[in-house]
Amino acid sequence: MSLAPIVTALSTVLGRDDVAFAADCVGAAAEETVAGLGDGGVALLENLRFHPGEEANDPDFAAALAALGELYVNDAFAVSHRAHASVAAIARLMPAAAGRLMQGELDNLTAALETPARPLAVIVGGAKISTKLELLGNLVARSDVLMIGGGMANTFLHALGIPVGGSLCERDMAETARAILARAEAEKCEILLPSDAVVATEVRPGAPSEAVQVKSVGEDRMILDIGPETVEALGLRLQGCATLVWNGPLGCFEVPPFDAGTNGVAGQAAALTRAGRLRSVAGGGDTVAALAHAGVLDDFSYVSTAGGAFLEWLEGKTLPGVKALEDAG
């Protein structure tokens, strides 16, 4: 867990061979390393997580960190959903600012979700509704159209009385799914669920598969991707939108041929973005991996570096690291 190996990478990025390393992030080792820096010198401190005070957001630990410098810059949006000492407490002890990466995240996410050009489309995929309840609840109130894919779409289909065979499905979440659909209707948010699906009896590369209407999924089959009809429908709907926020793959993209749905929609979103017709923002670890797999990562307007922080932002939560910077002025 030591950051010592990072010195070489940091030196390469900065183009210098004199990056110092402190064997601790507070105390004598850190103080001596910082004191020994010349003008323009750079030091990397050891991993904060070796100290319980980091995750405890301990004010004394934060004060020990603050004593090492004169200005605090948070450039880590990806951890700013955590109320930790190096993220939240320290920003209240010294002059604090956002770094350029943090600024880019906040500017793009604000433009995409809080002040978007409309219509605003949101794609939500992934395995389970239970992990994205707050996200779905927030998005139906903010978006104009919500496109649902991945395993969670199966739960919605089941909630509507459509048999999904042996597919991943949270049957105990059916009532919750129906409540989300009802809220979407009340909020005038259009919900798009798959009309067809790619099904198979096993998940492995090159497994025999076929596209069928969702109402025709056999008992022994699993839904592993959205079908071509759904890919086309989502692409057509995106043509009428101005902003897209994407979180979660639409199928088992890691296992061909069940990557075709995600690849197809991603390609259409990328084309609209390149044409200047769509502002596209994506985030979340699986989402970034899926877009990279589809070869369109660089074609989106913005791809967030964050996982949990991106999700909490979509859920409408206040991020402690961002709040601390805002309070610092």
SSE topology sketch:
Blueprint: H1 6-14, E1 20-22, H2 27-35, E2 43-45, H3 52-55, H4 59-66, E3 72-74, E4 96-98, H5 100-114, E5 120-124, H6 133-142, E6 145-148, H7 150-159, H8 174-186, E7 190-192, E8 196-200, E9 210-213, E10 222-226, H9 228-238, E11 243-247, H10 260-274, E12 279-282, H11 285-294, E13 302-303, H12 308-314, H13 320-328
Parallel strand pairs: 1-2, 3-4, 5-6, 5-11, 6-7, 11-12, 12-13
Antiparallel strand pairs: 8-9, 8-10
Helix pairs in contact: 7-8, 9-10, 10-11
Q: For the record, what CATH class of the largest domain applies?
A: Alpha Beta
Helix content: 25-40%
The number of E-state strands comes to: 13
Q: Which class do the helix and strand fractions yield?
A: alpha/beta
Gross geometry:
elongated
Please state the CA-atom Rg, rounded to the nearest Å: 23 Å
CATH fold-level name of the largest domain: Rossmann fold
Could you tell me how far the N terminus lies from the C terminus, measured between alpha carbons in angstroms? Answer: 34 Å
**Biggest sheet strand line-up:** 7-6-5-11-12-13
How much strand content do the residues show? 5-15%
For the record, the count of structural domains works out to: 2
User: Looking at this structure, what is the CATH superfamily of the largest domain?
Assistant: Phosphoglycerate kinase, N-terminal domain
Q: Enumerate the spans where pLDDT stays under 50 for 5 or more consecutive residues.
A: none
Outline the biggest β-sheet. 6 strands, parallel
Spell out the helices and strands N to C: HEHEHHEEHEHEHHEEEEHEHEHEHH
Task: Return the CATH architecture of the largest domain.
Answer: 3-Layer(aba) Sandwich
